[in-house]
Amino acid sequence: MKIIETESAKETYDLAAKMGETGTPGEILALCGDLGTGKTVFAKGVAAGLGIKEHVSSPTYTILQQYDDGRLPLYHFDVYRIGDISEMDETGYDDCFFGKGVTIVEWADNVREIMPPGTIWITLEKDPEKGFDHRRIKIEDEHTGD
């Protein structure tokens, strides 16, 4: 497990952009954390690293937003409003998880039981004592054991 601390939204974005630059087909990034911890900022950074020029926003009401204008497609899920895991079947998530692009799942802990082996778990946390924009980011990569 790696723990990285950032001091601004830009630093969080830049960290994520580096992950996007090295993203590979079938890579799944599971984003966890409370409201306002920077999950969507992180998703925007990954998209930038993939070369996506479209505006990226959290697909809270649509569950899935797909972006195809980068080096690889980006499948961006927000499962905050999922009430029952069976709702995921309607999204065609397995085509995304095992597709040709990078998948980001915000609120992934809500659908943990369908997340495949090899998922990269990223937890974003605030630490108000260190400042409003301070984030502690834990990255657990099941591929490498980190």
SSE diagram, text form:
Elements: E1 2-6, H1 9-21, E2 28-32, H2 39-49, E3 64-67, E4 74-78, H3 93-97, E5 102-106, E6 120-126, E7 135-141
Parallel strand pairs: 2-5, 2-6, 4-5
Antiparallel strand pairs: 1-7, 3-4, 6-7
Helix pairs in contact: 1-2
Number of domains: 1
Spatial order of the strands forming the largest sheet: 1-7-6-2-5-4-3
Estimate percent helicity.
10-25%
**DSSP strand count:** 7
Helix and strand run? EHEHEEHEEE
Q: What kind of sheet is the major sheet?
A: 7 strands, mixed
Oligomer: single chain
Q: What is the first-to-last residue Cα distance?
A: 4 Å
CATH topology: Rossmann fold
Give the number of helices. Answer: 3
Rounded to an integer in angstroms, the radius of gyration calculated over CA atoms is 14 Å
Overall structural class, as computed from helix and strand content, comes to alpha/beta
Mean pLDDT: 92
Low-confidence stretches: none
CATH architecture: 3-Layer(aba) Sandwich
Task: Describe the overall structure.
The chain has 146 residues and is an alpha/beta fold. It has one domain: P-loop containing nucleotide triphosphate hydrolases (Rossmann fold, 3-Layer(aba) Sandwich), CATH 3.40.50. It is built from three helices and seven strands; from the N terminus they run βαβαββαβββ. Strands 1-7-6-2-5-4-3 form a seven-stranded mixed beta sheet, with helices on one face. Helix 3 links the parallel strand 4 (74-78) and strand 5. The longest helix has 13 residues, at 9-21. The protein starts with a strand and ends in a 5-residue tail after the last strand.
